Every structure is written in structure tokens, then in C-alpha cells.
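From the pipeline queue, job 12 of 40. The input is one protein chain; the requested action is below.

Action: predict structure.
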Amino acid sequence: MAKRSKRYRTLVTGLTRPPAMPVAEALVAVKETATAGFDESVDVAISLGIDPRQTDQNVRGTVVLPHGTGRSVKVAVIADGADADAARAAGADEVGGEDLIARIDEGWMDFEILCATPSMMRLVGRLGRKLGPRMPNAKAGTVGPDIAQIVTELKAGKIQYRSDNRGGVVRCMIGKTSFEAEQLRANFAALVSALLRAKPAAAKGTYLKKIAVSASMGPSFKVDPSDAAAVAQTA
């Protein structure tokens, strides 16, 4: 277990954290305990009732957060011709065709999200082993014919979510502690709503098992899954 800072230990001393809280109360608590001296991210961890060993139960997709994440992601795009020009105009940080593929093949990885047009995927395929989860994927919303729209949405606050292959947990950033509580609630609702829509047909039993929210340097607060599901209906 990572050693906690003195600030963190002082913060949690005497802090009462109920077994489960309504979404709104949990998010207020996150803001109130964000004392790191900088604008911390607000993170959500959601344990899903899936079997991550089964490929038909993997949960993966994208969702546009109505208030963005509070940070700009670095987007690289593999495209050529007019598509490359459109990606640049939309705000992509790095754009290229075979030259960019070669750079990545040589080890360049200075990006957070890699996108591509469908016509370039036959060339991108050879990077699969090096890119791993950053491989452009239509299901993840990073491959498509309208590359300008993809880049615009990513820059505006579109995030990717993906269940891990160990416990079926989805971890996402939904904003910053400087956001208003209602903005965080709207972003939370959008994420949970997307996860509910992405529920695999093969998943059985309780789907939203455990949910926790926290600031990046603060304590976590458990959220009542039934309230989270109700809040998701407002998205």
C-alpha cells in the first residue's frame, strides 16, 4: 500500500464516511476534502457485475461529458489528404500518415489518444502490439470517416471508458474540483448512463456493484448504486 502524506492523514482523521452516500452528497464531500493546493481531478471508480474474462462481457465505449473534464487531451491522428487537413483544423495536436506510423513504430508515444480514418487502419494494424489499449478502435470512438468530428468531440470533453481485465472496474475522470457540484453531477450522470446502455447482454445479477468518487489526492467516498442509477436517468 502506498504511503499516505501527512496532509492526507490529517484530513481523514475524524472524517466520517458513510457506507454509501447519494451522488450529490458524495461529490460535495469530494470538493470539501480537496486540499492539495492545486485543482485536483475528480475520479470515479465503478465496479461492474461482469466477468472480465469473457470477451462478450467487456465494457468499452465513449461518452461526451456535458461540462468536459477541465483538461485538454493530446490527440494524434493518422490520416492523409483532406482528412489530415480536417483533423488539423479541428485541433489535433499531431497529424500524419505513414510518416506518423513510422515514428510510433520507432517509439514515439507523445499523445494520450490516437485516432485514425478507416482507410488508414490497414497500415495502423502493425502497431497493435506497441499501442496496446491505445490502438484506434471504432468501438472506442477513435476510428471513423468524420475525423474532424472525432477530434472536436475529444477536445470538447469526450472520454473513453473501459472495464479492466481483472475486476471489471471502470475508472474515469469526470472533471476538476473547481467545477460546481452540479456540473460534476451532470458529468457523473452522463458516464453512468453510458455504462448502463453498454451493459452486456451476458451480464447477470447486479450490474452497478460498487461506486466510489474521490479527488486525485483526497479520500474516496462510496456512492449508493441505486441513487447513481436514478441520477443517470437525468442525463
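Job complete. The longest helix spans residues 181-197.
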